[in-house]
Amino acid sequence: MARVELLEDYGPEAATLVDHIKRRRPGALLKLYKVLLHSPTLAETWFDHLGAVRWKTDLSGRLRELVIIRIALLHSVHYVLDQHVPTLAEADGVTREECEALKSWQDSRYFDAAERAALAYAEAMTRTTDVADAVFAALKPHFSEKQIVDLTVLIATYNMHIRVVNALRIEPEDA
Length: 175
Fold this sequence. Notes:
Layout lengths: L11 H13 L6 H6 L3 H16 L5 H15 L2 H14 L4 H6 L11 H15 L5 H5 L7 H23 L8
Helix pairs in contact: 1-3, 4-5, 4-7, 4-9, 7-9
């Protein structure tokens, strides 16, 4: 059970935001937003930031999903895993087998050199705040500087996302 009430009645100050979220993200309002709407300003900036990180970068959808799923696996966060595997991952070309292989990606045959460099970077950023020079240097042959910034912000954002979900004990969405 979430540590903060999942709001169902958002009040007039959040009504426009709720409509905006529902228009841009069809379906039921996620539990995450039902919690974040206790602070409408933060819910709005969160939604806009996450949208930019997911849809307005030069990273492929496949790479984005690989990184997000690996971070969720490192933290054992079912809220994110249930959102991305298999639906979002498969929509961006990541198979169920590849999702499973992310548990031990270093030993897997599924991922190319660029994906491996990004996964190593994601793992390093998730485990520590000081990324080794060799891990960072491995990105350079595969990604532009813009893409490296995009990747860095994606990784940092999903680590933040997961920490909020865990701290507030937001449970996975109902099936």
